[in-house]
Amino acid sequence: MARLKLAAALLTGALAATCWWGWLMLDHAGQDAQALAEARERGRQEAQEQIVLDRPVPGGNWMPLWLQTDPQWADIPYSDGTIETYGCGLTCAAMAIKYLTVQDVTPLALSGAVGEECLTDRVNDMAKFCEWIVANYPEYGIEYSGKVWRIEEALSMVDDGWVVMAGMEGPLGDRSYGGHIILIWDVDDEGNYWVRDPDDAANSERPWTREELEAVAWGTFNGLRGGHYGR
């Protein structure tokens, strides 16, 4: 009988130890899972803090310079590729919104808002972008010019305070494009023009003469005026 009691006591102790170790392992597993979740949340917060909405603006000007190649949004799907490969018009529209409204609208944010609404046959349609901006920012009183076809008329619009989204192809500075969108957004006191090329920072950092711009192979022009910086 004594042996049976001893065996029972040992068995009870073993079961208790097993249960305790099991509880301890579950507790550690729960703590590990909680620690992992907290680490992931810290990582997300740190990554969010590293997103820079306002890039330094070259040349002392106040129009933002968003580039399609910015790693914050370069790989985001857009049209038949990504913002890096197809997002010139989207990126120009984001710069125009930022300039006209002072809202922190990046190509990443704008792509989420418009989806494919401003594409025609998978290509950026700047008339649709302009109409979308006017419709979605009514409190800023932004005007849309409609399509313009001549560079002389487009430059006159810039002289009068319009931001012009310009379709082009061929050489522009040291680059050459098969089909591209840039912004022509300001004229300085010397009569030179400033552009924002979403695929080339160098083109955006210097003034352009009227003669240089008249030599480019242009497509259509679409202008916006008004908003916070409207003249």
Task: Characterize the structure shown.
This protein is an alpha+beta fold and 231 residues long. It is 43% helix and 22% strand. Helix 3 (88-101) packs across helix 4 (107-114) and helix 3 (88-101) runs parallel beside helix 5. It starts with a helix and ends in a 6-residue tail after the last strand. The model is unreliable at 3-8 and 46-61 (pLDDT under 50).
Report a brief summary of the structure.
The chain is of the alpha+beta class. It has helices spanning 2-50, 83-86, 88-101, 107-114, 126-136, 151-159, 210-214, and strands at residues 77-78, 81-82, 119-120, 123-124, 143-148, 163-172, 175-187, 193-196, 217-225.
Topology:
Elements: H1 2-50, E1 77-78, E2 81-82, H2 83-86, H3 88-101, H4 107-114, E3 119-120, E4 123-124, H5 126-136, E5 143-148, H6 151-159, E6 163-172, E7 175-187, E8 193-196, H7 210-214, E9 217-225
Antiparallel strand pairs: 1-2, 3-4, 5-9, 6-7, 6-9, 7-8
